[in-house]
Amino acid sequence: MNLTTSLKDVCRAVSVKGGLEVLKALKKTSDFNTLLKITGLDRGVAYRALERWVKMGIVRDTFDYNLKKHRYTLSPLGLIVLSKLEELENLLEELPQSSKMSAEEVLEFLESLPPDMREKLLVRKDVKEEEIL
User: Fold this and answer.
1) pTM surpassing 0.90?
2) Which of 13, 32, 96, 123 has a CA 20 to 30 Å removed from the CA of 64?
3) What's 7-75's CATH class?
4) 3-state SS assignment for residue 129
């Protein structure tokens, strides 16, 4: 099992059909059949998504000997990854729907965010506002 997980791996797994849906469903259930009902995914699609996440160490696959079935749970890393993905999803939902924003609109949007969130978004703190415009 490969326990080294890169951003590229996570983005690839999220972009594949069922990737994000499976992670979100694991917040509610560890049972495969219930996961299928929640997501509405085909068994094969859901299973392949789970396999991908398990290989990255995002999801844990355990076997319940009493029930004779697999249980899937988010690992500690999985909880963090899902939290950050949901944070990104919420941020994107807040963005204006226009795909083309002017520099002024971007700055206005950034200024409307709470300071801690704005700090997280600013990758290069050495860039001045004037340079963006």
Assistant:
1) no
2) 13
3) mainly alpha
4) helix
